[in-house]
Amino acid sequence: MKVKARLWDSLDNNKAQCHVCANECIILPGKVGICRTRKNFDGEIFTLIYGSHISTGSLDPIEKKPLYNFWPGATAYSIASIGCSFKCQNCQNWSISQASPTDNGKNGFYDLEGYQGREMSLVEMTPDQLVKKVVKSGAKTLAYTYNEPLIWHEWILDTAKLLKEKNIKIVLVTNGYSTPEASKELIDVGIDAANIDIKAMSDDFYKKICGVKSVKPVLDTAKYFKNNGMHVEITNLIIPDLNDSKEDILKLCKWIVDNLGKDTPMHFSAYHPDFKAPSKKRTPYETLDLAYKIAKDVGLYFPYVGNINHEQGSNTYCPNCGYLLFERRGYSFKKIDVTNEKKCPKCAYELNHDIIGEINKNPSHKFSFS
Ligand code: SF4
Ligand code: SF4
Q1: Residue 115: what pLDDT?
Q2: 147 ligand 2 Cβ < 6 A
Q3: pLDDT for residue 125 is more than 50
Q4: Does the pLDDT of residue 320 top 70, yes or no?
Q5: Does 368 fall in a domain?
Q6: Is residue 370 part of a domain?
Q7: CA pseudo-torsion sign 76, 79, 84, 90
Q8: Of ligand 2's atoms, which has the minimum distance to the CA of residue 148?
Q9: Residue 117, pLDDT score
């Protein structure tokens, strides 16, 4: 659906500059920005993906986002659109992230080699329709995920206002490439949590692998979200030979401790070759184990390891005494041992600031869904 965009300035000769993400594209009349979802029509920027969804949604465990310290065991009603502000060579969701909407925003199409001209149908919804579906599903949280949500800015703001009225918690799974003005609007509307992907600590990686200038806007977004009360968890996909050195991992962990705090959950994730496969190797267990140990050594309370079987890295331990609080198998729980007052049963450490929201001790993600 085509809707007038927020956060842009008019420039000379009918050009316009978008401030929704840190690419800050200057868009010529008739052209689109880097994400391909915002277009200049006669000097004004429109989003082409307002209310355009790849499906009516799916019901995921919130642990799949991954968020381990936010509403544990909750179901996340998960929705996506198309497009992305990045062009990551390893994108697992490239079939939606690298698709473009048509001018009226009704369909998506590909201009990728081998896929030119292929179309995908998008489902259109109003904010009211989405909120009704979420409430009916029984999910307590909604996640904007799979493609990059920050480029869906107007839709997120409008739906968030209605979701807040129904007490649905709102989650972004994002590359974090925001601007101060877009981040402020997201905070003001009350987005509850974000998993931010810090892909590496070097501009060089962001240039070569993601096709954008710098890591700095990502770090600024993480700090801004956290300082303004949003629950933040970080993901780092470890790619062999590209961001897997001990120094790379240590630099990231230290930055988190110094800027976001030791209580910030940190998810190291295993890579497998996908899309343009910038590395042909999978991440070995030993590298992820090393990352887990480095995170522990620098003092992070909640390091996790995903996409691979790592026993300690699946679990949540008491930051005070080390007691096993949540034992996980994949996205489900083998054991949850936290008191009803949300304290550690061994040392009575108060967990309210570390584990946000209700703990669903009997998760089932098979709600009615239509
Ligand atoms: S959202 Fe980002 S990538 Fe898209 S047009 Fe705006 S500045 Fe460019
Ligand atoms: S930021 Fe995420 S969705 Fe976008 S291209 Fe990179 S991996 Fe894909």
Answers
A1: 81
A2: yes
A3: yes
A4: yes
A5: no
A6: no
A7: positive
A8: 3
A9: 79
